[in-house]
Amino acid sequence: MSTAHFLHAIVHQVVTHTVMVTVRQNWAAGQVDGEGTTPVGTIRIDTRTMTVPTLKVGLGDGSAWRGVLAMVTLGGDHILTGTDHLLFLLILLLPAPLAVTGRRRHSLVGARSALGRIGRITLAFTAGHSVALAVTALGRLDIPGWPVEAFIATSILIGAIHAIRPLFPGKEALVAGFFGLGHGMAFSFVLAEMHLSTGQLATSLLGFNLGIELVQLLLVCLALPSLLVPARLRVQPALRLTGAVLTGTAAVGWPADRLGLPNPVARAADGAGFHTTLLLAALTAAALAATVWTGRRRLSGGLKPLGA
Question: Within a domain: residue 216?
């Protein structure tokens, strides 16, 4: 029985019943997140004729542009609130300003080399999740959620271990691209839930991915000073170890939560994604502080040029 026939039967059985009809998703009007609803009318019996008048739903004017723009915003929000995606990328970038010497120990590299590594890792991760997102979404592949979640958690844990003791020195970009495939599959779940038509899906995919990349680029740029400057400080090993341990702990807590074992670690890690304003403010403040500190050290002659 269709929804319309079901509602028609209810109204006929209970003549005083009134059905409020709302729309949760209207792609052309830019309503894509499903969080809000738009009332479009009511269904009730006409007591004079004892019939149920047909409800004509008019969703108003819309356009493909509004739909794509809404998808760009949705993609940006998703990467900004997706703690797991951000942690994976940042934990791989954390040791980027360092080179591996004998016995797999870290030593400082120049800023140009560090920037090159950061760029390659970010680009590889982007390529990996973009390809997987396109293939999974356009192919409408029905992939279970828990293996993807477990794969993502594993990628974060491996990245955290690598930040402490290098597992794949010089191959971070390849690893980022490989694990990016799993992250792209997770991104595709958002599009799958929307049940878009083929034409809407293609343009939505472009907009959604563009939003992801724009916010990801913003976050990496904000994190750059905080990645480069602490690498030149004596406390760098302690900071790197702390970041890796916290990230690894979250990676362990997530799989248990996804498998039906709620735990405070997973709740805390997921909750961090809801404080996006605080995250951006912290990254901005850290970037400004690192930039000011570098400038003062250069003026005092106590810091070699970052390009050395």
Answer: yes
> Does the CA dihedral 238-244-250-253 come out positive or negative?
negative
Q: Among 36, 62, 88, where does a domain finish?
A: 62
Greatest mean pLDDT among 62-66, 155-159, 270-274, 299-303:
155-159
- If we measure between CA atoms, which residue out of 99, 114, 128 comes closest to residue 186? 128
- Phi-psi category of 124—alpha, beta or left, where left has phi over 0 and alpha has psi -120 to 50? alpha
For the segment 221-226, the average pLDDT, to the nearest whole number, is 82
Q: Beta-carbon neighbour count of residue 73 at 10 Å?
A: 17
- 42: helix, coil or strand? strand
**98 close to 161: Cβ distance less than 8 angstroms:** no
Same domain, yes or no: 178 and 293: yes
The whole-model pTM stands at 0.74
pLDDT > 70 fraction of the chain, expressed in percent and rounded:
67
The parent domain of residue 25 ranges over 1-62
Q: In this predicted structure, what is the pLDDT of residue 175?
A: 94
In sequence order, the 6+-apart residues with CB closer than 8 A to the CB of 161 are 167, 244, 248
Tokens of 67: 């739909």
Count of domains observed in the chain: 2
The answer to whether residues 75 and 58 belong to one domain is no
